[in-house]
Amino acid sequence: MARFEQPKTDSRQKKAIQREAQRQIEKEQAERIVNMPEIAKATKSQTSNDPEGFCDSDSPVSVSGVFFTCALSTERVTKSQLDEHIRECILMHLAVDPIKASAFMVKTINKDKEKVQVCVNTIEKYINNVCAHPNEEKYSKIRLGNKAFQERVGSIEGAEEFLQAIGFERSLIKQDEQEEYYLVLNEDKKQHRDQLKAYFDVLANTQPLKPTLDRDIKVFHPNNSVLRFNLPSDFYNVTSQEVEREQQLRAEEVEMNSMLRTKAMREADLKKQLRRYRYVLIRIRFPDGIILQGTFYARDKLSSLTEFVRECLVNDWQPFYLVTQTRQKLTEETSMLAELQLAPAAMLHFQWDESIARDIASAQTQETTILKSCILKLMKPL
Question: pTM above 0.85?
Answer without folding.
Answer: no
